Amino acid sequence: MDIRKIFGLGEKEKTKASRLLTSAVDGGYIKVMDPDTAPRYKVSVK
Which end of the chain lies in a sparser environment, N or C, as judged by fewer CB atoms within 10 Å? Predict the structure, then answer.
């Protein structure tokens, strides 16, 4: 599923979706499945 659709964001709002996910991880609301993954791949929106 496209994460932008979950957040109700448009095609050009990938950065906003990435920031939301990063904030959620940093705040402890969601957990990264593989903590050994490089930081640039932990939270990404495609």
Answer: N
Token digits of residue 44: 């990404």
CB 25 within 8 A of CB 42: yes
Handedness of CA 20, 23, 27, 33 (dihedral sign): positive
Range of the domain at 25: 3-42
What does the alpha-carbon distance between residue 15 and residue 39 come to, in Å, rounded to a whole number?
15
| pTM listed for this prediction | 0.61
Compute the distance between CA of residue 2 and CA of residue 38 in angstroms, rounded to an integer. 22
User: Is the pLDDT score of 42 beyond 70?
Assistant: no
Region at 10 (left for phi over 0; alpha for psi -120 to 50; beta for the rest): beta
